[in-house]
Amino acid sequence: MEKTNEKIKKIARDFVSRTVEFYGELGKKPFFTPSGRAAEERLGKQEIPEEGRDLSEVYEEMLGDVYSHVLFSQHPRAFSCVPSTASLISWMGDVMTNAFNPHAACKVNAPAADLVERKLVRWMADLAGYPGTAGGIFVSGGSVANLTALTAARDARLTGEERAKAVVYVSDQTHSSVAKGLLVIGFFPEQIRKIPCDALFRMDVSRLNAEIEADLAAGRKPFAVVGSAGTTNTGSVDPLGEISSVCKKYGMWFHVDGAYGATALLSGRGRERLRGIELSDSLSWDAHKWMLQTYGCSLVLVRDRADLVRSFAAHPEYLKDAETSEDGVEFWDLGPELTRPARSLKLWFTLQVLGSREFGRIVDHGCALSELAEKTVRAREGWEVVSPASLAVVNFRFVPEGLTEEERDEVNCRASKEITESGFAQVYTTELCGRKVLRLCTIHPETTEEDVLETVARLAKYASAAAEDVLRSRR
Ligand SMILES: Cc1ncc(COP(=O)(O)O)c(C=O)c1O
Predict the structure, then answer these.
(1) Ligand 1: which atom is nearest the Cα of residue 174?
(2) Helix 356-378 to helix 449-474 angle, to the nearest 10 degrees?
(3) Would you state the CATH architecture of domain 357-474?
């Protein structure tokens, strides 16, 4: 054992210096190195050995064959989906948490971790404008945060008999995890209404009202509306204040999916955009999106912590002695997990090191880059902006004369594929108004203006070549 520990010491030193170097060099490298055939062959042949292997050998093998072939979504030119902004500082926080492995579900196991997590929940609740009754818990991601909040909504607003008649309202831009979560907690697809959006991809509140009235007239039970503070497709923000009024009028729960956009609360401009968020009953907020955290760090907040306790407290007999919190509530009473890691210690560490203002600057930087992309695209002939820059997301499309809409779809898809396969930048398409568009999400703090300008220029080059090909194939 001693010998192994000595080896671990040596390897760990090597690992730290390689990791720091890796992050330092990331922007100069392609965001993705496809796994070499040789690596796949080696891994394919490797079975679980009956006797253990040499530590250094396995370490090198894992680094070379597995971790090198990851698509680095924390690369400054990874612009698709919601890229990661994972930082070395968060990584360090993660390593420390994993090393000491606190079981962070109840105070008695890790009192200081419990205190830190509670303080962070309170700090974020204050940022969201929630009252003193608020509470929450860090879960693995936005999907689980949405599911957790909607479970609380179900149990707070519906009796057992009402569940079959219940209806929940989302928009046609709401993240897919919301519907998935609703199905997991027992609703059927026909109980989910997709409200259309306006030209800026925000929920149309008059349509929401009309749908609720129609459901009431049909004897159904409208019980919740999900608004978005930063949709994934376009970064749009639903009219949160208006939706809250609708919810109040009909006694419905108002959940805000801020998994992507709630971090904008840390910027002055961002706060303005999210006005009305403070009126919601629950909020999802991912720190592993725009707050520099490695994966597995998402907060679900509720206006009244008792709503989580109602849904999730279990009190098994063998844990009675571990119930020591002064307020009678442990983290295991607030979410679906029993054992849980102290997910937010790395966020606390990052915030202590960087300070909260830095996050405001990061949000403003991301928004400015998407505005730059929009301006650049608008200045290019044959291009159109499909959704203007909003919370660091912008969508655009090459629409050359003489091509059908289907051919334009094909041309934009090819541009996305080619730039992504080149390893220079990751740009995926999404669909808006039934058409394929190129989408940039520019949240990485180290992304430069040059990165954005060069990405748009390369997309234009690939798209023009693809359009030429289409025209040539017709001749
Ligand atoms: C608005 C929104 N909600 C929820 C999610 C799901 O979050 P996660 O992938 O962390 O489960 C995402 C992911 O991109 C998102 O953008």
Answers:
(1) 1
(2) 30
(3) Alpha-Beta Complex (3.90)
Is the shortest distance between the CB of 257 and ligand 1 below 6 Å? Answer: yes
User: Which of 81, 138, 139, 143, when mutated, tests ligand 1's pocket best, judged by the most ligand atoms within 8 Å of its CB?
Assistant: 143
Query: 34 CA to middle of ligand 1, Å?
Result: 26
**Residue 179: which of 193, 166, 196 has the closest Cα?**
193
Looking at residue 474, its pLDDT comes to 83
Q: Which residues of the chain have pLDDT under 50?
A: none
At 440, the amino acid letter reads: L
Assigned CATH class of 102-343? alpha beta
Residue 127 near residue 184 (C-beta atoms within 8 A): no
Measured in degrees and rounded to the nearest 5, phi and psi for residue 466 equal -65, -40
CB 400 within 8 A of CB 411: yes
- Which of 73, 79, 147, 175 is the best mutation target for the ligand 1 pocket, counting ligand atoms within 8 Å of the beta carbon and taking the most? 175
User: Which one, of 439, 443, 441, 452, lies nearest residue 386 by Cα?
Assistant: 439
pLDDT at 475: 77
Find out whether the beta carbon of 236 lies less than 6 Å from any atom of ligand 1. Answer: no
The CA distance from 75 to 347, in Å, is: 20
pLDDT on residue 450: 98
What does the alpha-carbon distance between residue 448 and residue 179 come to, in Å, rounded to a whole number?
36
Q: Which residues on neighbouring strands pair with residue 168, listed in sequence order?
A: 192, 224
pTM confidence score: 0.97
Gap between the Cα atoms of 84 and 76, Å rounded: 9
The preferred substitution site among 81, 260, 284 for testing ligand 1, maximizing ligand atoms within 8 Å of CB, is: 260
Residues contacting 439, CB < 8 A, separation 6+: 79, 80, 233, 393, 394, 395, 427, 428, 429, 430
Nearest to 379 by CA among 450, 433, 457: 457
The string of pLDDT tens digits covering residues 153-176 is: 999 999 999 999 999 999 999 999
